[in-house]
Amino acid sequence: MKLFYSSTSPYARKVQMLAMELGIDAQLEQCELHPLKNARELATVNPLGKVPALVTPKGGLVVDSPVICAWLDNHAVQLGKKTLLGESRERQQQIRELEALADGIMDPAFLLVMEAARPQQQQSTQWRQRWRDAIHRTLDYLDKERCRELSSGATVTLAELAMACALGYLDFRHTDMNWREGRADLSGWFDAIQQRHSFHATLPPGAS
Ligand SMILES: N[C@@H](CCC(=O)N[C@@H](CS)C(=O)NCC(=O)O)C(=O)O
Fold first, then answer.
1. Average pLDDT rounded to a whole number, residues 170-191
2. Pocket test for ligand 1, best of 11, 31, 67 (most atoms within 8 A of CB)
3. Contacts by 146-153 with C-beta closer than 8 Å and gap 24+?
4. pLDDT of amino acid 89
5. Hey, what long-range contacts does 74-83 have (CB within 8 A, 24 or more apart)?
6. Which domains does the chain possess?
């Protein structure tokens, strides 16, 4: 199976980390395509023109990182691996909620990067502020209300991987946001999760 990715995409990184944690990364043929620089080629793979995109062994297309992660997890379980999407219905719901919050940070964080690449006179101060506010509000909510649900121990789920990718993307692209400031619980959790091999192995180029 083929994973189309870009080395700076936090969504693709989530998929790559999950594959590593499931122990099925060797089965993934990874093809790098930049959504803007390789737009035409990417559109022939994924009509949405986005990464990540997975092409299954039967040639089927799976798009959207939560859906790709669910596909890979299911594939791994069929090979006898342990699910990283939660055993019980209750746990599955909790993991989905945390993944959605993490993806919800990636969305405006990515849009801010895209906006900054446009000519200055076309950039919207209003939208930029709205995206930044959404990120800060969500980080406050996570720090105060949801951080305790995240494991930093030996076992992780998709929730931790998604959150690590979202926070790692802020470190990579938005250092000016100082996201750790006043959020000791969340930043403490992130310091611990950063030690994982899957996190190091998928760092975007130039990040540390
Ligand atoms: N919800 C999607 C978002 C994917 C996404 O927006 N990927 C970015 C790269 S980080 C992209 O390919 N953008 C190209 C575009 O929006 O045209 C997911 O979770 O996979």
1. 98
2. 11
3. 146/98, 146/101, 147/185, 147/186, 147/189, 148/185, 149/94, 149/98, 150/98, 150/189, 150/193, 152/189, 152/192, 152/193
4. 98
5. 75/24, 76/22, 76/23, 76/24, 79/24, 81/22, 81/23, 81/24
6. 2-78 (3.40.30.10), 89-198 (1.20.1050.10)
* pTM for the model: 0.98
Give the residue-averaged pLDDT of 25-43: 97
Residues with CB under 6 A from ligand 1: 6, 9, 11, 35, 49-52, 64-65, 103, 110
- What gap in Å lies between CA 135 and CA 108, rounded to an integer? 7
106 CA → ligand 1 middle, Å: 10
Percent of the chain past pLDDT 90, that is, above it, reads 97
For ligand 1, atom 16, which residue shows the shortest CA distance?
A: 50
Q: Which two tokens stand for residue 136?
A: 């800060």
Which pLDDT tens digit goes with each residue over 90-106? 999 999 999 999 999 99
Q: Which residue has the tokens 């101060």?
A: 125
pLDDT exceeds cutoff 90 at 154: no
Please report the pLDDT score of residue 201 as a whole number. 97
- How far does residue 80's CA lie from ligand 1's centre (Å)? 31
Per-residue model confidence (pLDDT) at position 164: 98
